[in-house]
Protein backbone atom coordinates (compact mmCIF):
# COMPACT_ATOMS: atom_id res chain seq x y z
CA UNK A 1 0.00 0.00 0.00
CA UNK A 2 1.41 3.35 -1.06
CA UNK A 3 0.24 6.37 0.95
CA UNK A 4 0.48 10.08 0.35
CA UNK A 5 0.74 12.30 3.39
CA UNK A 6 -0.22 15.81 2.34
CA UNK A 7 1.71 18.75 3.72
CA UNK A 8 -0.01 20.13 6.80
CA UNK A 9 0.16 23.52 8.50
CA UNK A 10 2.66 23.26 11.41
CA UNK A 11 0.07 23.47 14.20
CA UNK A 12 -1.09 20.45 16.17
CA UNK A 13 -3.50 19.97 19.04
CA UNK A 14 -4.83 16.57 20.12
CA UNK A 15 -4.83 13.50 22.34
CA UNK A 16 -3.39 10.15 21.34
CA UNK A 17 -3.60 6.85 23.26
CA UNK A 18 -0.72 4.51 22.44
CA UNK A 19 -0.81 0.83 23.41
CA UNK A 20 1.73 -0.94 25.62
CA UNK A 21 5.45 -1.15 24.97
CA UNK A 22 6.22 -4.03 22.63
CA UNK A 23 9.45 -4.71 24.53
CA UNK A 24 7.69 -4.99 27.88
CA UNK A 25 4.79 -6.92 26.32
CA UNK A 26 7.00 -9.53 24.67
CA UNK A 27 8.94 -10.03 27.89
CA UNK A 28 5.77 -10.40 29.94
CA UNK A 29 4.27 -12.85 27.43
CA UNK A 30 7.37 -15.01 27.75
CA UNK A 31 7.43 -14.71 31.55
CA UNK A 32 3.74 -15.57 31.67
CA UNK A 33 4.40 -18.72 29.61
CA UNK A 34 7.32 -19.64 31.88
CA UNK A 35 6.00 -18.81 35.30
CA UNK A 36 2.37 -18.31 35.62
CA UNK A 37 -0.98 -16.99 35.44
CA UNK A 38 -0.72 -13.27 35.92
CA UNK A 39 -2.83 -11.05 33.68
CA UNK A 40 -1.21 -8.49 31.39
CA UNK A 41 -2.92 -5.10 31.06
CA UNK A 42 -2.34 -2.62 28.23
CA UNK A 43 -0.61 -5.28 26.13
CA UNK A 44 0.90 -3.97 22.89
CA UNK A 45 -1.33 -4.39 19.83
CA UNK A 46 1.79 -4.62 17.64
CA UNK A 47 2.20 -7.40 15.10
CA UNK A 48 5.39 -8.41 16.97
CA UNK A 49 3.37 -9.05 20.13
CA UNK A 50 0.68 -10.89 18.20
CA UNK A 51 3.25 -13.25 16.67
CA UNK A 52 4.81 -13.74 20.10
CA UNK A 53 1.44 -14.75 21.57
CA UNK A 54 0.71 -17.05 18.66
CA UNK A 55 4.13 -18.69 18.83
CA UNK A 56 3.82 -19.38 22.54
CA UNK A 57 0.40 -20.98 22.02
CA UNK A 58 1.47 -22.97 18.95
CA UNK A 59 1.59 -26.75 18.96
CA UNK A 60 3.05 -26.89 15.45
CA UNK A 61 6.60 -27.96 14.75
CA UNK A 62 7.32 -24.88 12.62
CA UNK A 63 6.97 -21.52 14.33
CA UNK A 64 7.30 -18.39 12.18
CA UNK A 65 7.91 -15.12 14.01
CA UNK A 66 8.08 -12.97 10.84
CA UNK A 67 10.05 -9.75 11.53
CA UNK A 68 9.98 -9.80 15.34
CA UNK A 69 13.53 -9.65 16.72
CA UNK A 70 12.49 -9.99 20.35
CA UNK A 71 10.31 -13.01 19.54
CA UNK A 72 13.16 -14.67 17.59
CA UNK A 73 15.71 -14.19 20.36
CA UNK A 74 13.43 -14.85 23.35
CA UNK A 75 11.86 -17.95 21.79
CA UNK A 76 15.19 -19.48 20.78
CA UNK A 77 16.03 -19.67 24.48
CA UNK A 78 12.48 -20.67 25.46
CA UNK A 79 12.22 -23.60 23.04
CA UNK A 80 15.78 -24.72 23.82
CA UNK A 81 14.75 -25.27 27.46
CA UNK A 82 11.32 -26.76 26.60
CA UNK A 83 11.87 -30.46 27.38
CA UNK A 84 10.58 -32.77 24.69
CA UNK A 85 9.44 -30.08 22.23
CA UNK A 86 11.04 -30.06 18.80
CA UNK A 87 10.70 -26.74 17.03
CA UNK A 88 11.79 -25.20 13.78
CA UNK A 89 11.98 -21.51 14.57
CA UNK A 90 11.98 -19.31 11.51
CA UNK A 91 11.18 -15.79 10.41
CA UNK A 92 11.00 -13.41 7.46
CA UNK A 93 13.80 -13.30 4.88
CA UNK A 94 15.29 -10.34 6.78
CA UNK A 95 15.08 -12.29 10.05
CA UNK A 96 17.14 -14.99 8.35
CA UNK A 97 19.87 -12.34 7.86
CA UNK A 98 19.82 -11.06 11.45
CA UNK A 99 22.53 -12.82 13.48
CA UNK A 100 21.61 -15.29 16.22
CA UNK A 101 24.91 -17.23 16.51
CA UNK A 102 26.05 -15.64 19.78
CA UNK A 103 22.82 -16.66 21.51
CA UNK A 104 22.89 -20.16 20.02
CA UNK A 105 26.51 -20.61 21.21
CA UNK A 106 25.57 -19.42 24.70
CA UNK A 107 22.61 -21.80 24.85
CA UNK A 108 24.78 -24.66 23.62
CA UNK A 109 27.17 -23.83 26.47
CA UNK A 110 24.21 -24.42 28.80
CA UNK A 111 23.56 -27.80 27.12
CA UNK A 112 21.06 -26.87 24.38
CA UNK A 113 20.61 -28.86 21.16
CA UNK A 114 20.21 -26.32 18.33
CA UNK A 115 21.21 -26.73 14.70
CA UNK A 116 21.09 -24.35 11.77
CA UNK A 117 18.77 -25.38 8.94
CA UNK A 118 20.41 -23.27 6.22
CA UNK A 119 23.20 -20.87 7.11
CA UNK A 120 25.49 -21.10 10.12
CA UNK A 121 24.62 -18.34 12.58
CA UNK A 122 21.14 -17.59 11.19
CA UNK A 123 17.52 -18.77 11.37
CA UNK A 124 15.82 -21.09 10.63
CA UNK A 125 16.86 -23.11 13.66
CA UNK A 126 16.03 -26.69 14.56
CA UNK A 127 15.67 -26.67 18.33
CA UNK A 128 15.40 -29.96 20.23
CA UNK A 129 14.17 -28.80 23.62
CA UNK A 130 15.82 -30.42 26.61
CA UNK A 131 16.72 -29.91 30.23
CA UNK A 132 19.56 -27.38 30.35
CA UNK A 133 21.97 -28.69 32.92
CA UNK A 134 24.55 -25.92 33.28
CA UNK A 135 24.03 -22.46 34.67
CA UNK A 136 27.09 -20.42 33.71
CA UNK A 137 27.53 -18.83 30.34
CA UNK A 138 29.56 -16.09 28.68
CA UNK A 139 28.88 -14.06 25.55
CA UNK A 140 29.87 -10.89 23.70
CA UNK A 141 27.62 -8.05 24.83
CA UNK A 142 28.09 -5.53 22.04
CA UNK A 143 25.86 -7.03 19.32
CA UNK A 144 22.34 -7.26 20.77
CA UNK A 145 21.02 -6.98 24.31
CA UNK A 146 18.13 -9.21 23.24
CA UNK A 147 20.40 -12.27 23.55
CA UNK A 148 21.12 -11.30 27.15
CA UNK A 149 17.46 -10.64 28.03
CA UNK A 150 16.55 -14.03 26.54
CA UNK A 151 19.12 -15.79 28.72
CA UNK A 152 18.04 -13.85 31.81
CA UNK A 153 14.36 -14.76 31.51
CA UNK A 154 14.82 -18.39 30.55
CA UNK A 155 17.70 -18.61 33.05
CA UNK A 156 15.24 -17.85 35.86
CA UNK A 157 13.41 -21.07 34.97
CA UNK A 158 16.53 -23.24 35.32
CA UNK A 159 17.04 -25.10 38.61
CA UNK A 160 20.30 -23.27 39.34
CA UNK A 161 19.30 -19.93 37.83
CA UNK A 162 21.92 -18.41 35.58
CA UNK A 163 25.20 -16.53 35.74
CA UNK A 164 25.95 -14.54 32.58
CA UNK A 165 29.43 -13.18 32.02
CA UNK A 166 29.39 -10.34 29.53
CA UNK A 167 32.37 -9.75 27.27
CA UNK A 168 33.23 -6.29 25.95
CA UNK A 169 31.09 -3.17 25.79
CA UNK A 170 27.45 -3.74 26.76
CA UNK A 171 24.95 -2.33 24.28
CA UNK A 172 21.32 -1.22 24.75
CA UNK A 173 21.73 -1.44 28.55
CA UNK A 174 18.26 -0.08 29.47
CA UNK A 175 16.68 -3.12 27.79
CA UNK A 176 18.69 -5.38 30.11
CA UNK A 177 17.57 -3.27 33.07
CA UNK A 178 13.97 -3.53 31.84
CA UNK A 179 14.24 -7.33 31.89
CA UNK A 180 15.70 -7.22 35.37
CA UNK A 181 12.99 -4.88 36.69
CA UNK A 182 10.23 -7.12 35.36
CA UNK A 183 11.88 -10.14 36.99
CA UNK A 184 12.10 -8.17 40.25
CA UNK A 185 8.41 -7.25 40.02
CA UNK A 186 7.66 -10.96 39.77
CA UNK A 187 9.77 -11.61 42.88
CA UNK A 188 12.77 -13.10 41.02
CA UNK A 189 16.08 -11.96 42.50
CA UNK A 190 18.99 -10.83 40.38
CA UNK A 191 22.14 -8.74 40.34
CA UNK A 192 23.93 -6.85 37.57
CA UNK A 193 27.38 -5.70 38.57
CA UNK A 194 30.08 -4.74 36.10
CA UNK A 195 30.21 -7.47 33.45
CA UNK A 196 28.21 -10.05 35.37
CA UNK A 197 24.50 -10.77 35.66
CA UNK A 198 23.17 -13.35 38.12
CA UNK A 199 19.57 -14.52 38.17
CA UNK A 200 18.23 -16.68 40.98
CA UNK A 201 15.80 -19.49 40.11
CA UNK A 202 12.18 -18.32 40.25
CA UNK A 203 10.09 -19.36 43.20
CA UNK A 204 6.30 -19.25 43.32
CA UNK A 205 5.00 -16.13 41.59
CA UNK A 206 2.41 -14.28 43.64
CA UNK A 207 1.52 -11.56 41.20
CA UNK A 208 -1.94 -11.44 39.69
CA UNK A 209 -1.55 -8.57 37.23
CA UNK A 210 1.18 -6.68 35.39
CA UNK A 211 0.44 -3.34 33.73
CA UNK A 212 2.45 -2.38 30.66
CA UNK A 213 3.40 1.26 30.23
CA UNK A 214 2.70 2.60 26.75
CA UNK A 215 5.42 2.49 24.13
CA UNK A 216 8.02 5.25 24.29
CA UNK A 217 9.51 4.38 20.90
CA UNK A 218 6.07 5.07 19.39
CA UNK A 219 5.95 8.31 21.39
CA UNK A 220 9.07 9.47 19.55
CA UNK A 221 7.02 10.31 16.44
CA UNK A 222 4.92 12.75 18.46
CA UNK A 223 8.06 14.36 19.84
CA UNK A 224 9.22 14.81 16.28
CA UNK A 225 5.86 16.23 15.19
CA UNK A 226 5.86 18.67 18.11
CA UNK A 227 9.43 19.76 17.32
CA UNK A 228 8.55 20.46 13.68
CA UNK A 229 5.47 22.54 14.57
CA UNK A 230 5.19 26.26 15.21
CA UNK A 231 2.62 25.53 17.89
CA UNK A 232 1.91 22.09 19.36
CA UNK A 233 -0.06 20.72 22.28
CA UNK A 234 -0.08 16.94 22.09
CA UNK A 235 -1.22 14.71 24.91
CA UNK A 236 -0.08 11.10 24.72
CA UNK A 237 -0.94 8.32 27.17
CA UNK A 238 -0.39 6.21 29.31
CA UNK A 239 3.09 6.95 30.59
CA UNK A 240 4.96 7.31 33.84
CA UNK A 241 7.92 9.37 34.95
CA UNK A 242 10.11 6.50 36.11
CA UNK A 243 9.82 4.38 33.01
CA UNK A 244 11.46 1.00 32.41
CA UNK A 245 11.98 2.02 28.78
CA UNK A 246 15.26 3.65 27.80
CA UNK A 247 13.53 5.55 24.99
CA UNK A 248 11.90 7.74 27.67
CA UNK A 249 15.16 9.69 27.35
CA UNK A 250 13.20 11.47 24.57
CA UNK A 251 11.90 13.94 27.16
CA UNK A 252 15.47 15.06 27.83
CA UNK A 253 16.82 14.93 24.27
CA UNK A 254 13.93 16.84 22.71
CA UNK A 255 14.36 19.75 25.13
CA UNK A 256 17.23 20.75 22.87
CA UNK A 257 14.93 20.45 19.86
CA UNK A 258 12.26 22.72 21.37
CA UNK A 259 9.82 20.29 22.99
CA UNK A 260 8.71 20.66 26.59
CA UNK A 261 7.46 17.52 28.39
CA UNK A 262 5.01 17.72 31.28
CA UNK A 263 3.64 14.67 33.06
CA UNK A 264 -0.06 15.10 33.86
CA UNK A 265 -1.16 11.97 35.72
CA UNK A 266 -0.76 9.13 33.21
CA UNK A 267 -0.55 11.46 30.23
CA UNK A 268 2.42 13.33 28.83
CA UNK A 269 1.88 16.78 27.40
CA UNK A 270 4.26 17.77 24.60
CA UNK A 271 4.45 21.47 23.82
CA UNK A 272 6.49 23.38 21.29
CA UNK A 273 8.64 25.99 23.00
CA UNK A 274 9.69 29.17 21.28
CA UNK A 275 13.45 29.06 21.90
CA UNK A 276 16.58 29.71 19.81
CA UNK A 277 17.51 26.70 17.70
CA UNK A 278 20.96 25.16 18.16
CA UNK A 279 23.08 25.03 14.98
CA UNK A 280 24.30 21.54 15.71
CA UNK A 281 23.42 18.78 18.19
CA UNK A 282 25.28 15.65 19.18
CA UNK A 283 23.72 12.58 20.80
CA UNK A 284 25.03 9.14 21.81
CA UNK A 285 22.17 6.70 21.23
CA UNK A 286 23.83 3.41 22.25
CA UNK A 287 21.19 3.12 24.99
CA UNK A 288 18.25 4.09 22.78
CA UNK A 289 18.94 2.87 19.23
CA UNK A 290 15.29 2.79 18.15
CA UNK A 291 14.91 6.59 18.20
CA UNK A 292 17.89 7.31 15.93
CA UNK A 293 15.78 7.51 12.77
CA UNK A 294 13.24 9.82 14.43
CA UNK A 295 15.93 12.21 15.64
CA UNK A 296 17.74 12.31 12.29
CA UNK A 297 14.53 13.31 10.47
CA UNK A 298 13.58 15.86 13.16
CA UNK A 299 16.97 17.51 12.84
CA UNK A 300 16.72 17.62 9.07
CA UNK A 301 13.24 19.17 9.26
CA UNK A 302 14.50 21.78 11.71
CA UNK A 303 17.57 22.60 9.60
CA UNK A 304 19.82 21.58 12.51
CA UNK A 305 23.07 19.71 11.87
CA UNK A 306 23.46 16.54 13.92
CA UNK A 307 26.04 13.96 14.84
CA UNK A 308 24.56 10.73 16.16
CA UNK A 309 26.87 8.17 17.77
CA UNK A 310 26.47 4.72 19.32
CA UNK A 311 24.62 3.38 16.27
CA UNK A 312 26.61 0.13 15.87
CA UNK A 313 23.47 -2.04 16.19
CA UNK A 314 21.51 -0.27 13.45
CA UNK A 315 22.98 -2.29 10.61
CA UNK A 316 21.39 -5.54 11.89
CA UNK A 317 17.89 -4.30 12.63
CA UNK A 318 14.83 -4.57 10.33
CA UNK A 319 17.08 -3.17 7.61
CA UNK A 320 20.50 -1.53 7.58
CA UNK A 321 19.04 1.63 9.10
CA UNK A 322 22.16 3.72 8.53
CA UNK A 323 22.19 3.10 4.77
CA UNK A 324 18.41 3.43 4.57
CA UNK A 325 18.50 6.80 6.37
CA UNK A 326 21.27 8.01 4.12
CA UNK A 327 19.40 7.03 0.95
CA UNK A 328 16.02 8.47 1.94
CA UNK A 329 17.23 11.70 3.61
CA UNK A 330 19.36 12.35 0.53
CA UNK A 331 16.22 12.08 -1.62
CA UNK A 332 14.62 14.76 0.59
CA UNK A 333 17.59 17.05 -0.11
CA UNK A 334 19.85 16.36 2.88
CA UNK A 335 23.65 16.24 3.00
CA UNK A 336 24.38 13.21 5.13
CA UNK A 337 27.18 10.74 5.70
CA UNK A 338 27.26 7.58 7.76
CA UNK A 339 29.88 5.20 9.15
CA UNK A 340 29.10 1.75 10.53
CA UNK A 341 28.25 3.34 13.89
CA UNK A 342 27.47 7.02 13.42
CA UNK A 343 25.50 9.48 11.31
CA UNK A 344 26.39 13.05 10.35
CA UNK A 345 23.88 15.44 8.89
CA UNK A 346 24.49 19.01 7.76
CA UNK A 347 21.92 21.68 8.56
CA UNK A 348 20.04 22.68 5.43
CA UNK A 349 16.47 23.42 4.41
CA UNK A 350 16.67 22.34 0.81
CA UNK A 351 13.42 20.36 1.25
CA UNK A 352 12.17 18.32 -1.71
CA UNK A 353 8.44 17.84 -2.08
CA UNK A 354 6.46 14.75 -3.16
CA UNK A 355 9.36 12.39 -2.57
CA UNK A 356 8.50 8.69 -2.24
CA UNK A 357 10.18 7.15 0.81
CA UNK A 358 11.17 3.50 0.55
CA UNK A 359 10.45 1.73 3.83
CA UNK A 360 12.74 -1.34 3.52
CA UNK A 361 10.28 -3.50 5.53
CA UNK A 362 11.16 -1.29 8.49
CA UNK A 363 8.28 0.23 10.44
CA UNK A 364 10.53 2.96 11.79
CA UNK A 365 11.50 4.14 8.30
CA UNK A 366 7.84 4.99 7.65
CA UNK A 367 7.05 6.47 11.04
CA UNK A 368 10.26 8.47 11.43
CA UNK A 369 9.77 10.19 8.06
CA UNK A 370 6.05 10.94 8.55
CA UNK A 371 6.58 14.14 10.61
CA UNK A 372 8.32 15.58 7.53
CA UNK A 373 4.73 16.03 6.29
CA UNK A 374 4.85 19.30 8.26
CA UNK A 375 7.48 20.51 5.74
CA UNK A 376 6.33 19.02 2.43
CA UNK A 377 3.99 16.42 1.01
CA UNK A 378 5.60 13.00 1.16
CA UNK A 379 4.74 9.48 -0.02
CA UNK A 380 5.43 6.08 1.54
CA UNK A 381 5.88 2.74 -0.17
CA UNK A 382 4.52 -0.28 1.74
CA UNK A 383 3.05 1.99 4.39
CA UNK A 384 1.57 -1.01 6.21
CA UNK A 385 5.03 -1.76 7.63
CA UNK A 386 3.97 0.30 10.66
CA UNK A 387 2.00 -2.78 11.83
CA UNK A 388 5.17 -4.26 13.28
CA UNK A 389 5.03 -1.96 16.29
CA UNK A 390 2.20 0.57 15.81
CA UNK A 391 -0.73 -0.59 13.65
CA UNK A 392 -2.84 2.53 14.41
CA UNK A 393 -0.12 4.97 13.34
CA UNK A 394 -1.67 6.35 10.14
CA UNK A 395 -5.14 6.52 11.73
CA UNK A 396 -3.72 8.43 14.68
CA UNK A 397 -2.03 10.93 12.33
CA UNK A 398 -5.35 11.31 10.54
CA UNK A 399 -7.08 12.20 13.83
CA UNK A 400 -4.49 14.94 14.29
CA UNK A 401 -5.65 16.50 11.02
CA UNK A 402 -3.25 15.02 8.46
CA UNK A 403 -4.76 14.30 5.07
CA UNK A 404 -3.63 10.85 4.01
CA UNK A 405 -4.70 8.89 0.97
CA UNK A 406 -3.79 5.74 -0.86
CA UNK A 407 -2.20 6.33 -4.25
O1 LIG B 1 15.02 -6.04 24.13
C1 LIG B 1 14.29 -5.34 23.43
O2 LIG B 1 13.05 -5.30 23.61
C2 LIG B 1 14.91 -4.53 22.36
C3 LIG B 1 16.25 -4.27 22.37
C4 LIG B 1 16.92 -3.44 21.36
O3 LIG B 1 17.65 -4.28 20.49
P1 LIG B 1 19.26 -4.51 20.59
O4 LIG B 1 19.59 -4.91 21.95
O5 LIG B 1 19.45 -5.60 19.59
O6 LIG B 1 19.89 -3.21 20.22
C5 LIG B 1 15.92 -2.63 20.54
O7 LIG B 1 16.52 -2.09 19.41
C6 LIG B 1 14.72 -3.47 20.12
O8 LIG B 1 13.80 -2.73 19.39
C7 LIG B 1 14.00 -4.01 21.33
C1 LIG C 1 14.75 -3.20 16.30
C2 LIG C 1 13.46 -3.31 16.55
O1 LIG C 1 12.80 -4.47 16.83
P1 LIG C 1 13.31 -5.98 16.88
O2 LIG C 1 14.80 -6.00 17.03
O3 LIG C 1 12.62 -6.56 18.08
O4 LIG C 1 12.87 -6.63 15.61
C3 LIG C 1 12.61 -2.09 16.58
O5 LIG C 1 11.43 -2.20 16.95
O6 LIG C 1 13.07 -0.99 16.22
UniProtKB/TrEMBL annotation:
This is 3-phosphoshikimate 1-carboxyvinyltransferase. It is an enzyme of class 2 (transferase). Its EC number is 2.5.1.19. Keywords: Amino-acid biosynthesis, Aromatic amino acid biosynthesis, Cytoplasm, Transferase. Monomer. One of its GO terms (cellular component) is cytoplasm. 3-phosphoshikimate binds at residues 22-23, 27, 144-146, 172, 290, 317. It comes from Leeuwenhoekiella palythoae. Pfam families: EPSP_synthase. GO terms for biological process: amino acid biosynthetic process; aromatic amino acid family biosynthetic process; chorismate biosynthetic process. Coiled coil: none annotated. It catalyses: 3-phosphoshikimate + phosphoenolpyruvate = 5-O-(1-carboxyvinyl)-3-phosphoshikimate + phosphate. It is found in: Cytoplasm. Phosphoenolpyruvate binds at residues 22, 69, 98, 146, 321, 364, 388. Belongs to the EPSP synthase family. Residues 58-397 form the Enolpyruvate transferase domain.
Amino acid sequence: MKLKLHQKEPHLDGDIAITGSKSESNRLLLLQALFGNFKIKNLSNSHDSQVMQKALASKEKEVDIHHAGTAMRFLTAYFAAFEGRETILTGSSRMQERPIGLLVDALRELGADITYQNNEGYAPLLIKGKKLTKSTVSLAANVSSQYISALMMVGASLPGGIEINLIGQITSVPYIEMTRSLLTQLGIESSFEGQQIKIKPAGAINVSEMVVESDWSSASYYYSLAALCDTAKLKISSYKKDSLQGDSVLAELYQKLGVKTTFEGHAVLLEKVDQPKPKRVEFDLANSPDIAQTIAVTCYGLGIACDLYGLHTLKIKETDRLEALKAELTKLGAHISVTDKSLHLEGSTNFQSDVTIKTYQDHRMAMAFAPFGLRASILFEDAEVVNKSYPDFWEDLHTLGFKINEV
